[in-house]
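for the recovery benchmark. tokens below, seq after
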């Protein structure tokens, strides 16, 4: 009888151990990321590639002789590689809107100037913009910043200055300034 009881107890233990095993199944897959080189430059004030107008008002003779500066313009570069930023005007001369014909004949070639007022890109400000003062802009690309570090919030700020002289008639003179960020 002892053998039968021991046998039944052993069978119950084996049955309990066999039914206690979990019934599980699994599946797996590989998640692949395809990362491409990516770069973006935008104005902090607007969050896109079109900044607010940098308006410089000339009201007094001192404004005409000493020039007028714009408010600071803040830009941000987001890039997954190191980068550089170039700057240029989109035309060789200002566009004039007013009542006089041939008003642009007297606009100085070096009337619009720019300086970097802040640089948080990890890169260097390139000459002629690396000096403490303003440098003239032209319609040809000029390197503004080089060796900027990759990242999602690389910022810099610029300020314009214009000294048009006294030979221009009243009116509105406009010029688009283009900043181009390029991965290095």
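predicted aa per position
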């Amino acid at each position: 009888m002892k053998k039968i009881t021991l046998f039944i107890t052993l069978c119950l233990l084996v049955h309990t151990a066999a039914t206690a095993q979990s019934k599980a199944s699994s599946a797996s897959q590989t998640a692949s990321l395809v990362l491409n080189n990516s770069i973006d430059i935008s104005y902090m004030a607007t969050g896109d590639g079109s900044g607010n107008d940098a308006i410089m008002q000339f009201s007094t003779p001192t404004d005409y002789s000493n020039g007028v500066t714009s408010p600071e313009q803040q830009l941000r570069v987001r890039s997954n590689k190191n980068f550089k930023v170039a700057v240029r005007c989109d035309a060789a001369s200002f566009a004039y809107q007013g009542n006089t014909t041939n008003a642009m004949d007297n606009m100085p070639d070096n009337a619009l100037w720019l300086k970097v007022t802040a640089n948080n890109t990890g890169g260097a400000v390139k000459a002629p913009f690396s000096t403490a003062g303003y440098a003239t802009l032209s319609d040809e690309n000029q390197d503004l910043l080089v060796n900027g570090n990759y990242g999602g919030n690389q910022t810099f700020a610029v300020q314009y200055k214009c000294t048009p002289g006294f030979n221009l008639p009243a009116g509105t003179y406009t010029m688009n300034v283009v900043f181009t960020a390029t991965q290095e």
